[in-house]
Amino acid sequence: EVQLVESGGGLVQPGGSLRLSCAASGFTFSSYSMNWVRQAPGKGLEWVSYISSSSSTIYYADSVKGRFTISRDNAKNSLYLQMNSLRAEDTAVYYCARELYDSSGYSNDYWGQGTLVTVSS
Amino acid sequence: QSALTQPASVSGSPGQSITISCTGTSSDVGGYNYVSWYQQHPGKAPKLMIYDVSNRPSGVSNRFSGSKSGNTASLTISGLQAEDEADYYCSSYTSSSTGVFGTGTKVTVL
């Protein structure tokens, strides 16, 4: 069974940092591209970042570029999101999601349960 | 990248068909056959319902269908059921190689 489990969320002050993790199991993690998607409370979905299976290709939304860094460790079946210079508008549930197939144009067939990040003083 | 435009709400009676639109530009929806649709129930993670404009993942009911014309994609739910009441989001690949979601549509079963 495919499972994605996020962790690392919590309360952080504006300007602070946080590192999210996503533990993958039930599939060959190293064969799939992955994404981070977030959802502010009561709002819609927002794509955040993409990383290819080998980490050779990475993309970011303009809203997080220069502040967030996506990475993965295929040996540990894990995906990460390092978030720096956090702002109030980064408050959201953060989901990790698996792409349906390589270069599937952001079709994500499996999602984690999400981890809440709250940026507030 | 601006969010794709969806109607805020759509409603229908059980058994009816409804259609949700998703309007973008030639730089996203209109330029690629990489449109997906997701269903999200309150407090739950999104679920992939349609990918590559009109394909259904294994296990998704054939009551859900997708299409595209120009810069507008559509999701049709036929034989509406109470369990279909949820939020629906479209998404697309963009010319910047990034992703973009729609504004979301709340479907209400009357």
Layout: helices, strands, pairs:
The complex is a heterodimer of chains A (121) and B (110).
Chain A: E1 3-7, E2 10-12, E3 18-25, E4 34-39, E5 45-51, E6 58-60, E7 68-73, E8 78-83, E9 92-99, E10 108-111, E11 115-119
Parallel strand pairs in A: 2-11
Antiparallel strand pairs in A: 1-3, 3-8, 4-5, 4-9, 5-6, 7-8, 9-10, 9-11
Chain B: E1 9-12, E2 18-23, E3 35-40, E4 47-50, E5 64-69, E6 72-77, E7 86-93, E8 99-101, E9 105-109
Parallel strand pairs in B: 1-9
Antiparallel strand pairs in B: 2-6, 3-4, 3-7, 5-6, 7-8, 7-9
Keywords:
heterodimer, A: 121 residues, mainly beta, seven-stranded mixed sheet, four-stranded antiparallel sheet, 0% helix, B: 110 residues, three-stranded antiparallel sheet, 9 strands, 44% strand, globular
Describe the structure.
The complex is a heterodimer of chains A (121) and B (110). Chain A is mainly beta and 121 residues long. In chain A, 0% of the residues lie in helices and 50% in strands. Chain A is built from no helices and eleven strands. Chain A has strands at residues 3-7, 10-12, 18-25, 34-39, 45-51, 58-60, 68-73, 78-83, 92-99, 108-111, 115-119. In chain A, strands 2, 4, 5, 6, 9, 10 and 11 form a seven-stranded mixed beta sheet that branches. Chain A has a four-stranded antiparallel beta sheet with strand order 1-3-8-7, with no helix packed on it. Chain A starts with a strand and ends with a strand. The model of chain A has no long low-confidence stretch (mean pLDDT 97). In chain B, strands 1, 3, 4, 7, 8 and 9 form a six-stranded mixed beta sheet that branches. Chain B is globular, with a radius of gyration of 13 Å. Chain B has no helices and nine strands. The mean pLDDT of chain B is 97. With 110 residues, chain B is an all-beta fold. In chain B, a hairpin with a 5-residue loop joins strand 7 (86-93) and strand 8 (99-101).
